[in-house]
Write the structure tokens for this entry.
Amino acid sequence: MNSRTIANGILRAVAIMLGIAVLGWFLYKIQSVLTYLVIAAVLALLGRPVVLFLRKKLRFPNTLAVVATMVFMLSVFLGILALFIPLIAEQSKNLSLLDIESLKGNLNTLYLQTLEYFGASTGSVNILLSESHLEENVLKGLDLGFIPNFLNSFINTLSSFGVGLFSVLFISFFFLKDSKLMQNGMLTFVPDDKESNLVKSIDKINNLLSRYFAGILLQLFILFVIYTTTLLIVGVENAIVIAFLCALFNIIPYIGPIIGGVIMVTLTMTSFIDADFSTVILPKAVYVLIGLTIGQLIDNFFSQPFIFSASVKSHPLEIFLVIIIAGLLFGVTGMVVAVPGYTAIKVILKEFLAENSFVKKLTRNL
């Protein structure tokens, strides 16, 4: 090996690394577009069964079936969004989000009532409740000014929401109208002798992920019914909206249910902030906690095993490890996309490396 060959090898390696860096920079710059594509692809997978039903059962033309499906999904989305208006208004009033001092007072009251119930002396509580010592308790120095700042940031984010919504709807329409659009785009990067393998992979991925997302919707609906029933029994205002919000957090594996549970219990307690702690607030919080526990038991022992085994055909332990690893590598986003991504990888491996012994064992259920 002469110096010319070594130099060419070094130059080639540098060129490859530079190309990878440029590609990474390019993908970083268009990450919003990639996000739109991913969301549109998920919506297309969810809407695909509806389009097929309208075309095959009701004899709708393809374009009309797609338009009807898009209108239906958009109506559902706007309806869900409208549900949150009374919740935001009510909880803003309860928590006094625009009045920081009132919010501190409410949190102080709840905190002190908890101390009193769990054994703090009456004298100590009275001292803390006095005007001169109010700022010396656990909330002293707590800067709650981030709340208005957060609300302002949220409002600014809404200004770009319209562009994102239009982009997603536009892309989703063509994904639904021409189910082969994405497939044809991917085929341009695949050698001719591998096109049949890619077509088979895409068809199987579409079927598996359609069933997976349908299963996720069933899972959320079961939790929504349980949470709504619990909150209605307890007497919490805006029970349907709160239940939907907390059920929606279950999209995030393992962490989501904890976040949703904390939010549900907190909103329950703040809904009765003016009531007696020991006879009203605490019992209602316990009842909600029992409802949360029942919902999670049903979800963990029925909904999730059914979804994983019947839709993506993977063992629950296998899915658990994949979600944990994806969470460690990519955070919450990785946990959300772990199962769909892992399923797609398994299908592609089965089609392109079917003779590999490891792949055979990994994909034997597909």
Remarks:
- The CA atoms of residues 313 and 365 lie 6 Å apart.
- Residues 95-99, 121-125, 127-139 have pLDDT under 50 and may be disordered.
